[in-house]
Amino acid sequence: MLFLNITLSLTICLMVLIFFHSFRKIRELMRQLKTSEKNYQELTGEYNSNKQKFEIRIQEELEKNRQKDLLLIRHSRFAAIGEMISSMGQQWLQPLNSLSLLIQDVREAREFGEIDDQYIDRFTVEGLAHINVMSGIVNDLRKFYQLNTEKSFFSVGDSIEDALTMFSSSLKNHNIQVSFEYRGQHIGYGYPNEFSQVMVILFSILRDTFVDKNIKKRKMVIKLEESKECVIVEVFENSGGIDPAHIQKVFDPYFSTRSDGSGLDHYIARMILEKMDGRISVKNTSDGAKFHIALPRCPVSTEREGVSV
After folding, report:
1. Element (H, E) at 198
2. Which of 55, 121, 163, 252 is the 20 to 30 A CA-CA neighbour of 170?
3. Measured between alpha carbons, how far is residue 6 from residues 10, 12, 16, 112 in Å?
4. Which pTM does this prediction carry?
């Protein structure tokens, strides 16, 4: 009996010791858990704070890059406007010379008594015709200068024609023969004036290429067609093409094969087109380079309803 009591007492003591040991262990684990929760909350708070800071910084950097891109586009537009003003001055020479001759003829007509109603009518009609030509050139420049704030449907062919009209004097002065034929409106979706700017940039690049390489017979062919989703513009030139070692870098910023080139023309053209969800690429042909431009086209359903351009 005594042995049984001793055994029972030892068993109870052992259980009490195990209980207290377990209790202490549980308390320690609870303390560690609370510490871990506190550390987790601190880390979560720090993570959220850093995440918010990074998001703000990313937005700031994106905004800086957007402003930088807009600045580049604006500088490119100013450069193109400089080209247009130079071209406009050359286009004004002929009507100005004609007006000068017309005005000089008035004095001689008075000396010989030739001024009558018929002479005045002819003088007025011819003078106004020359003035209208000059006014049209100014209006073309004003149209090119205006930035489109919203995307719209527009005739890609007409935009190319506008660019050719504005750049015609420079092309003519450098003996560049241009072939451009298209049928239909080929309605694209984007910014019509900015698209004309892309074409002016491209014409300027090709003109400089012809001059740098001293090409004698300079030809540029523009083709316009459509796929299911895009209006496609292909521009061919016969300057011998681009060095295969450089062709993959052509549209990279600040890359230029010319010693005096900024390396931004191709990049800005690509950037403007990407803003319209378009794209531009280039590859060599047997005669020279072929630039391929794809622009989102007008949906068929919209074409059937009728689009004002």
Report:
1. helix 192-213
2. 252
3. 6, 10, 15, 154
4. 0.61
79 or 27, which is more confident: 27
Instruction: Give the chain's end-to-end CA distance (angstroms, integer).
Output: 113
Tell me which of 71-75, 101-105, 155-159, 244-248 is least confident.
71-75
pLDDT tens for residues 85-141? 666 666 677 677 777 877 888 877 777 777 888 888 888 888 887 787 777 767 766
Calpha distance 279→7 (Å, rounded): 91
Burial class (CB in 10 A: 0-12, 13-18, 19+), 141: middle
Kindly state the DSSP code that residue 299 receives in the 8-state scheme. Answer: P
Q: What does residue 80 show for φ and ψ, rounded to 5 degrees?
A: -65, -40
For residues 33 and 41, the answer to whether their CB atoms sit within 8 Å is no
Place of tokens 């230029």: 256
